[in-house]
Amino acid sequence: MKGYSSPPFLSLFLLLLLLSPLASVVALLRAPPRLPAFYAEKLIRQLNLFPGEPVNIAAESGRFVDVPRIVERRFKFPTWSILVTLRMFYFFFESRNSTEDPVVIWLTGGPGCSSEMALFYENGPFTIANNLSLVWNEYGWDKVSNILYVDQPIGTGFSFSSDRRDIRHNEKGVSDDLYDFLQAFFKEHPHLAKNDFYITGESYAGHYIPALAARVHQGNKAKEGIHVNLKGFAIGNGLTDPAIQYGAYADYAMDMGIITQTEHDRINKALPLCESAIKLCGTDGTISCMAAYFVCNTIFTAIVARAGDVNYYDIRKKCEGNMCYDFSNLEKFLNEQPVRDALGVGDVQFVSCSSTVYQAMLMDWMRNLEVGIPALLEDGIKLLVYAGEYDLICNWLGNSRWVHAMEWSGQKEFVAASEVPFKVDGSEAGLLTSHGPLSFLKVHDAGHMVPMDQPKASLEMLKRWMHSSLSRQAPLDSESLISSM
Ligand SMILES: *[C@@H]1O[C@H](CO)[C@@H](O)[C@H](O)[C@H]1NC(C)=O
Ligand SMILES: *[C@@H]1O[C@H](CO)[C@@H](O)[C@H](O)[C@H]1NC(C)=O
Question: What pairing do the DSSP bridges indicate for beta strands 438-443 and 197-203?
Fold first, then answer.
């Protein structure tokens, strides 16, 4: 945040403000230093979360100096063995089917939200009941994979550091940490290193996922460490190519009837400025990226202001008061003493979503992460982009547009490919476009959190995608793993 109040930024920011045709949102921008904090707090409250600390920085610096790189505990929770580690904290669940199944890593977005949000509310082996006991999730992704949920970037969830310099500001920092984590994990569990490996996640992880995929691929090519058998990466309702995705907001909102044509046209007057700011930001800008964050978010803010109390993760729903979802049981459960003792987290706080990490990543927000993807596709690494159709914030339209606009050797065929129904149990659960290693899936009846809204379809999606049978017709029910387990 050093460059934040520096004169060049401020003057660029003011210049952009003066140029901004969106007078109605200028008021929101009057106090720029507080705005990111406001967005971060709002995000956290909307999930009904109240982390005790803004970030996990341990007080004493010497505390974990002599511990090995990776500290794990195996325990029953309630009947399944799990491994956890400190510093980069993670849950690991062995596949309920076979340890030979692929290893999958899940990354929650935010930026700054714990991956345990997905573990307990989306695709983990259990959900938290209201009495805080754990209930099996029939459609947990551990039914077809050995799955890791990592708290990252450092400072979120139970991951912590004693050094503030470990707070990350960009995808280089994030992907290097994750790469180091994977190396340590596979060193400790060499029998899993030969399994296929997939990177998955959601929302802001639309930045993390392509960055990590590129980092792993680069490490493999350079024979840097243990070979990680990367086969594919999947982005769910992600933010990957901001220029295209911010351009789709008003179109999506109008298509869905939450703003009028007049409002659409007025709001999009900010678009040329937003697009040029994003262009300046590119893949590695700094101050221009900050300016782009402020300017472009006027578009989103204006839409939300028009739309009233609509839940922008699922426009079919309303936010009650400040609350759009109630994930408070996550904090209650992970702060129970017996749970904390079992996890061995000592006095480390559980930071469900970190406002500090959110703000530290602001310069990363508008960077284009699409640019590294074509090289991965050319090397045969699969990409699945999927999106629940009722999400506004990372809507399917913006995602579909960048996936179609992406230049790679199969682009023509991909663009020409016809949409086919993605069927689960004989009914259409989504619409699929695919060619070669690239697939795009629009998921019906789902918002931002697809595995929460469509658990069965999302498990089928993961399974068929990993088995490269996403575009094949649905298996007969008798052959389906889901109904046989
Ligand atoms: C807690 O709730 C779950 C799910 O509703 C239920 O199956 C379980 O029996 C309850 N446990 C206790 C101790 O009440
Ligand atoms: C379950 O495990 C077996 C044995 O490794 C494997 O052949 C099969 O493909 C797995 N099923 C699924 C759906 O992943």
Answer: unpaired
**pTM score:** 0.89
> 132 CB less than 6 Å from ligand 1?
no
pLDDT tens-digit series, residues 412-430: 999 999 999 999 999 999 9
Tell me the sheet residues that pair with 382: 232
Q: What is the mean pLDDT of residues 90-99?
A: 94
Nearest-angstrom CA–CA distance, 167 and 182: 19
DSSP letters along 269-311, please? GGHHHHHHHHHHHTTT-SHHHHHHHHHHHHHHHHHHHHHTTB-
Task: Give the SS3 label for residue 459.
Answer: helix
Cβ(1)–Cβ(359) under 8 Å?
yes
Which atom of ligand 2 is closest in space to residue 466's alpha carbon? Answer: 14
Q: Express each pLDDT in 113-169 by its tens digit.
A: 999 999 999 999 999 999 999 999 999 999 999 999 999 999 999 998 878 888 999
Q: Residues 197-210: what's their mean pLDDT?
A: 98
Helix (H) or strand (E) holding 237: strand 230-238
Q: Is 448 an annotated catalytic residue? A: yes
Q: Which ligand is nearest to the CA of 135?
A: 1
Ligand 2 center to 138 CA (angstroms)? 17
Q: Cα(130) to centroid of ligand 1, in Å?
A: 8
Task: Point out the catalytic residue in the list 20, 95, 203, 354.
Answer: 203
Whose Cα sits closest to atom 9 in ligand 2?
Answer: 101
